[in-house]
Amino acid sequence: MNVTWGKRAVTGALAALLMTSGLALATAVPAEAAGAKYTCKAKASLSLGRPVSTSACKKSAKGKTVKKHRAVLVCDVVRGRGAEHTIAWTVKGDWKKPTQKSSVKCGFSSFLRSVKVETK
């Protein structure tokens, strides 16, 4: 008695089952990444006396969906000689993906007023 047709049928069914489960996993991964939620924070520091802000995002269940983020600094720039005065100047970093860091610097003779993160 020869049972090769039964082995072929079982092997074909197993291959079809593995292929459909593999396709389901391949389509599920991008959907999960697109719906990921992040919490973004900005951190201020000094570099050679200049205010610097760096923003970074972490995955979080309580966060919101973020496609891009950037660091924003508001600096007080000192102008004039003798009768000095300050001007508020907003400096924005480049838009980055949630897995990357965005940073921005104020110019020299500047003081840090505020730091924040913009998302979209």
UniProtKB/TrEMBL annotation:
N-terminal signal peptide: 1-26
Keywords: Signal
Source superkingdom: Bacteria
UniProt name for this protein: Ig-like domain-containing protein
Organism: Streptomyces finlayi
Lineage of origin: Bacteria, Bacillati, Actinomycetota, Actinomycetes, Kitasatosporales
